[in-house]
Amino acid sequence: MANLTANYVLDKYWEIIKEEINVKDISTLQWAWNIKKIFKPIGSQISAKFGKDTGNVIKFGKMGNIKEWENWSMIVFDDDGNEWILSNEDYEIAYEWLDWKDIAADGDLIAKLDLEITPELEKEWVAREISRFLNQMRKDADFNIDARVAMYYETNNEYLKDVISLFTEFLSNEALLSSVNPWKLDGDIQAVFNLDEMTATFTLIS
Question: Which CATH number does 119-205 carry?
Answer without folding.
Answer: 3.30.2320
